[in-house]
Write a structure and sequence with these properties.
Layout: H1 17-23, H2 44-57, H3 73-85, H4 88-102, E1 110-119, E2 128-129, E3 137-146, E4 151-158, H5 167-173, E5 190-193, H6 200-208, E6 212-215, H7 227-242, H8 254-274
Parallel strand pairs: 1-5, 5-6
Antiparallel strand pairs: 1-3, 2-3, 3-4
Helix pairs in contact: 2-3, 4-8
Length: 277
C-alpha cells in the first residue's frame, strides 16, 4: 500500500516549502516569447507534484487525474525529461548529501553495495534476460550507500549483467560531497558486499581507490559477519522500491527511469535531513 498522508497531514507527493526552496533554484529558466507567447507554462511546483504522484503511485502517465491540478501526464513527462537533461535531479541529490554531511549525519567511513532485479515490461535500453525471472526482460538497480543506508549513487543495467561488473562504475558514480570546509569527500574507507562481488581482480581495483574491500567469498559457509554492516544497503533498496514506479520498469527510455531513481534517492535524503536518526 502507498501511504496517502505524511505525519503532518500532507500527502507525500505534495512538495513542502523546504524541499521546494532547494529545487526551485536548480530549475532551468524558460523565457516566454514576447510577440507570440503561446499558452502559459504550467507552474513548476504543480508539475513536480505530478511527477512525484507518478513516482509514488506507479500510475501510468496517461491516467494522471486532471482534477489534482498537476497538469497532464504528458506535461509532467516532458518536464521530467527536460529537468533530467538539465541535471536537476543529480544536483538536487548532491545538494542534499552536502547538507547531510554538514549536519553530521553522513558517515563515509564505510559503504555497502548491492543490486536488485525488476521486470522491464516494455524493453528498451539497459534491459536483458533476467537469470532470476525465467529469462524475462528485466533491469537491475545497483546501489551504493554510506554507513547509515543513505544512497550515494545508483546505476541502471540490464537484468543479465553480473553484479561485480558494476562495482567500479558504482564507486566512480559517487559524487564529491561537500558540506564542510576542506576537500569534498568522495571515497569511503571500507566497502562491504556479498558473494556476488567475489572476484580478486575487482578487489584489487577497489584497493586502487584506497578503499578496503570486505567481500564475502564463494564456497564458504554463511555467517561471515559482514551482514552486520551490509544490511543497510538492502534497507535502502527497500526504500527505493517503496516508490511503486521503481518496482517495475515501465519506461522504454533508460534515462527516464534513471531520472526516477535519482529523484527517489533525493527524496530519501530529504526525509533523513528532516527526520535525523
Amino acid at each position: 500500500m502507498v501511504a496517502t498522508e505524511t505525519r503532518g497531514g500532507r500527502k507525500p507527493w505534495e512538495v513542502d516549502d523546504g524541499l521546494w526552496e532547494r529545487i526551485e533554484p536548480l530549475l532551468p529558466v524558460i523565457e516566454r516569447h514576447f510577440r507570440y507567447p503561446g499558452r502559459r507554462r504550467l507552474d513548476d511546483r504543480r508539475v513536480l507534484c505530478g511527477i512525484l504522484f507518478v513516482l509514488y503511485t506507479g500510475i501510468p502517465w496517461r491516467y494522471l487525474p486532471q482534477e489534482l491540478g498537476f497538469g497532464s501526464g504528458m506535461t509532467c513527462w516532458r518536464r521530467l525529461r527536460e529537468w533530467n537533461e538539465a541535471g536537476v535531479w543529480q544536483r538536487l541529490h548532491e545538494l542534499l548529501l552536502a547538507e547531510l554531511r554538514a549536519a553530521g549525519t553522513l558517515d563515509l567511513s564505510r559503504a555497502s553495495a548491492d543490486s536488485s532485479h525488476l521486470r522491464a515490461m516494455k524493453g528498451g535500453a539497459a534491459t536483458g534476460p533476467s537469470p532470476v525471472d525465467r529469462g524475462k526482460t528485466g533491469s537491475k538497480h545497483h546501489v551504493i550507500v554510506e554507513a547509515h543506508g543513505i544512497p550515494l549513487a545508483t546505476t541502471l543495467t540490464g537484468g543479465n549483467r553480473n553484479d561485480v561488473t558494476q562495482l567500479i562504475p558504482l564507486i566512480r558514480a559517487v559524487p564529491p560531497i561537500r558540506g564542510k570546509r576542506g576537500q569534498p569527500l568522495r571515497r569511503p574507507k571500507h566497502l562491504y558486499a556479498d558473494r556476488g562481488y567475489d572476484h580478486e581482480s575487482y578487489r584489487d581495483q577497489v584497493r586502487r581507490f584506497e578503499i578496503t574491500p570486505h567481500i564475502a567469498r564463494r564456497g564458504t559457509e554463511h555467517g561471515s559477519g559482514l551482514g552486520v554492516h551490509r544490511w543497510v544497503v538492502e534497507g535502502a533498496i527497500a526504500l527505493l522500491h517503496w516508490f511503486r514506479r521503481l518496482r517495475i520498469r515501465w519506461e522504454i527510455r533508460d534515462d527516464i527511469h534513471q531520472a526516477f531513481i535519482t529523484l527517489g534517492c533525493a527524496v530519501i535524503c530529504w526525509r533523513r535531513l528532516r527526520n535525523p536518526l
